[in-house]
């Protein structure tokens, strides 16, 4: 019975966060090293792990969220192995190592609770969305797990003068030090995005990366806050 299933067994733990296959996250939990994860993302765990939905640290940030930017989060604590997933989406694991990342809330799966995080305005896009667009920024020494609807592409902007253009509906995350601006595109309207209104792209420039998924999510990607 065990022989045909041996290839699906989890590998020995080598890092705080790891992929188990393409669609599942494995987290090595330790007392004192808590995790914030998307509510409902737990699929299995080993050991003794407790869950607290909407902990005080999340409520403090959420007081400033007028239209609910950010995913509903739970605090996970304890010792053992925790497995997370999001409806079969691909999982991308990132060791920030002192850097930061700006993430669409719909693509945020989990991150170390000690990291610095909050909601920030996406500069350079206010004229495209009235009051502006907002995203979740995470930084510090620790781990972050993102989801992607399909295998993503990671574009290195390279620090040159050329800009990288991305459909907002396919955007997952980007380096927060990149410069961002919007670009209207009437001629490309039939090719970019799925809305019937004026099409636009996000243009990135500078030194850093942009993570793009091969799917245009029909939900609000970057929410407008009035």
Give a written overview of the molecule:
The chain is mainly β and 226 residues long. Helices cover 3% and strands 43% of the residues. The strands form three sheets. Strands 1, 2, 3, 4, 5, 6, 8 and 11 form an eight-stranded antiparallel sheet that branches. A six-stranded antiparallel sheet has the order 9-10-7-14-17-12, with no helix packed on it. The protein starts with 16 loop residues before the first strand and ends in a 14-residue tail after the last strand. The model is unreliable at 220-226 (pLDDT under 50). This is AIM24 family protein. It comes from Streptomyces glaucus.
Concise description?
The protein is mostly beta strands. It is 3% helix and 43% strand.
Count of DSSP strands = 17
Shape: globular
Low-confidence stretches: 220-226
The fraction of residues in strands falls at 35-45%
Oligomer status: single chain
H/E series: EEEEHEEEEEEEEEEEEE
Spatial gap, N to C terminus: 58 Å
Distinct helical segment count? 1
SS-based structural class?
mainly beta
Name the average pLDDT: 82
Tell me roughly what share of residues is in helical segments.
Answer: under 10%
Tell me about the largest β-sheet: 8 strands, antiparallel
Radius of gyration: 18 Å
